[in-house]
Amino acid sequence: MKKSVGLNLLGQALLLGATIAWGTSFVILKQTMESTPPMYIIALRFLIASFVLALVFIKKMITMDRKTLLRGMLLGAVVATAYLVQTVGLMFTTPARNAFLTSSYCVMCPFLVWLFFRKRPKSHNVISAVLCIVGIGFIALSGDNSNGSNMFLGDALTLLCAVFYGFQIILISRFQEKGSDSIRLLVMELFMVGIIHAIVSLIFELPKTGIEGYALNAEQIGKIIYLTVVCTLFAQFAQIFGQKFTTANQSSIILSLEAVFGVIFSVILGDEQLTAPLIVGFVIVFGAILISELKPDFLRPFRRKQVEEPALQSSEKNQAESNSEKIQE
């Protein structure tokens, strides 16, 4: 059953809102991480968000079935792995390369769907995804690349992170198609991400920083509340519901704009200068979105040629037979 245009536009708007929220999180998270362990921040974000949603939808959570519980836990484990691998990868490569390679999940997504569900991507899906990655590359790589070491390891981990983000896109769509409730999936996903990061923080960060490293002042609390309410609660809610009304390919394209909005807010706040690569990147990404929405059939000229050639050969054959009959007469 085809999704209505109105619901599809609503889904795209929700995904765009989530992407913008995540774009603002780059600056806020960077500021917060200067004095607070990063895994600890992520654990707080997701645990608080999951508890808030669980209280709001307490009746749904009490009546949650076993299948939805397991699906939510699997989804949360995938997202947590993506966050963990991305953060570790960032320790060995530059932020620009990390952002660029992470966004490659929008290229991987159609091929992951093809691999697991045998649904071949169309020409416009592949071309728009590739163009989007090229545009994000111009934007991300225009930044400062002077930091980072052992880039091969960092880039490899970041690419692995992109694979897990691709799986997240596919799993959400798949589980919703099978009838799993969106709210229950979302709460379990957030809870699992928070728990996993809390365990990682206790094992690796607490011994280094001590309990004093977990202390928060008023400014840090305010930033964590923003990250929790806007960048986690709203953004995750918008993503999981937005994907309900959009295709996996549309989701991957829109969500790939996270790096673009991250650069935009960095420019607005004076952390980034507008350069030629940035402008070129914006233009290419806009072109990718147009291709994704207009859905041009790039293979149509080739198919038309293949149809016309047999028709022409058939016409020539009929004409030859007609001439032969006239000669015999």
What can you tell me about this protein's structure?
- By secondary structure, the protein is mainly alpha-helical.
- Helices cover 81% and strands 0% of the residues.
- It has two domains: 5-298, no CATH class; 300-329.
- Helix 4 (66-92) packs antiparallel against helix 8 (151-177) and helix 11 (248-255) packs antiparallel against helix 13 (276-294).
- Mean pLDDT is 81; it is low at 324-329.
From the N-terminal CA to the C-terminal CA, the straight-line distance is: 59 Å
User: What's the mean pLDDT score?
Assistant: 81
pLDDT below 50 for ≥5 consecutive residues: which ranges?
324-329
Order of helices and strands: HHHHHHHHHHHHHH
User: Percentage of helical residues?
Assistant: over 70%
By helix and strand content, what is the structural category? mainly alpha
Topology, number of strands: 0
Notable characteristics:
single chain; 329 residues; mainly alpha; 2 domains; 81% helix; globular; disordered C terminus
Question: Layout of SSEs?
Answer:
Blueprint: H1 5-33, H2 38-56, H3 58-62, H4 66-92, H5 95-102, H6 105-117, H7 123-140, H8 151-177, H9 182-209, H10 218-242, H11 248-255, H12 258-268, H13 276-294, H14 300-328
